[in-house]
Amino acid sequence: MSLFKNRTVVGVICILLSLLICFGVTPLFNQSVSQKTEIVRVVKEIKAGEEITKEMVQTTEVGGFGLPDNVLRQSESVVGKYATADLSVGDYILNTKLSDTPAAENTYLYSLDGTKQAMSVTIKSFANGLSGKLQSGDIVSVIAPDYKKQGSTVIPAELKYVEVIAVTAGSGYDANTGEQTGNEAEDEKELPSTVTLLVSPEQSKALAELEADGKLHLSLVYRGTPANSAKFIEAQAKVIAALYPTEPVQNDTPKSESQGSEENTVSEAPAESEVQ
Prior knowledge:
Layout: H1 2-5, H2 7-34, E1 36-42, E2 57-63, E3 82-83, E4 98-99, H3 107-110, E5 117-122, E6 139-143, E7 162-169, E8 174-175, H4 184-189, E9 192-199, H5 201-213, E10 217-222, H6 226-243, H7 255-268, H8 272-275
Antiparallel strand pairs: 1-2, 3-4, 5-9, 6-7, 6-10, 7-8, 7-9
């Protein structure tokens, strides 16, 4: 202890420690701070649910000190993904803010294959849309009061069984899709404004007429498993096929040529013995 009471010794030790910090620790710290790494940065504003394209991001070099471990460093791992939150210009992209699939409220739009269409109808009053109780996957009937100005209320044959694919609030966000937003109080205030239905071209024309008249009601027919819902849609498809039969394709080939082609077809057909 007497050694540390000597001011000269203490001074020398302090000097040595300061030299060690200045020429040993500080350069190592500066080196780690100055190390560069590439990250993916946003160059065009991206909205939640939007698909990210090459024009929206770029790879840039920044200091690697203090970067989160889950920051994405290659544009290939970002392009084609979907943003789960709004991203502003200059933001780093974290893997927690991306999804391989569209947001739940947009999924149904990406599943359209051309055979059917998504069409929205306005809910004029709270009661018209089952008091906000409709959900994606429900089977509903469309009721038309004073149908075609005839004074009677009917369910058009082509709109007896229709699938609900979304219920949208006035804010533009989907409600009652089965997804929880985490803010139950806000969800309760979001009353439905439109209902989006999965329809055939024939059904869309009938819906457009009812939408123009401003008179339609939706009644719930079935809510349950997709397998049972498909049975209702299949039954509806048969009704539509009967109401709107497909017109036969007109054959412009002269009769003589047509007969000749039929004869050739018959002569070239394999015999039963060949098939066997």
